[in-house]
Give the backbone structure.
Amino acid sequence: MYNLSNRVALVTGAAQGIGLGIALELAKAGSRIVVADRDLPKAEGAVAELHNSGATAIAVAVDVTNAASVNGCVRAALEQFSAVDVLVNNAGIHCEKLGQPSTEEHFHRCLDVNLVGVWRMTQALVPHFKARREGKIINIASIDGRKPWAQTPAYSASKAALINLTQSLAIDLGVHNINVNAVCPGGVMTGMADAFQRDFPALRDHIINSRPLKRALSPEDVGKAVLFFASSHAANITGQALNVDGGAVMN
């Protein structure tokens, strides 16, 4: 249905979890993948998995909190593939733990990775997109950015700001034929979610049972939404934030 043959997608935080699920779905549609992650050995493991599925992929180290690292990542991707067509800003962190108070450090860390890190990656690739007069940017936000948790104000605030940034970028970059959209997952079962829920084993069942669809979400579910935004089927869609949460939040 979706054809991304001869396209290149750079996915941050793609070594595992949601990022890897996104990379796998884009690769199924024919895209070549840049697995960009802070953990290079894990990124190389993800590349091996992509190669086993028949995809073309490379691993590149990136720390989205460091401008030099971000620029180096983009440079490596362009040197390998000559072009990047899709940027998926997936790298993110959950600083807080349930039952523990949030701190100023939580806010600084969440905002630097989840918000400013997205801005850094985007700014590094925008000149390339502008020169080619096309580009797709998909930011991975969260339903927590729409309906915040009192226990995780730093994370929720960073994702709410990311939704707003997505819309601001869509307005600014639309004239250059660059689409900017967001996907808002909710309660996807990943390593990060497992760590967050470790002390609250009933939370997973509560999350699933609170959804109208009553079923767990996978990284590939998020990947399918990203694939839609990356495809020609979404050519006239920009500035939108799509919930992928089994109906937990409706808007």
User: Anything to note?
Assistant: The chain has a mean pLDDT of 93. The radius of gyration is 17 Å. The chain is about 45% helix and 15% strand.
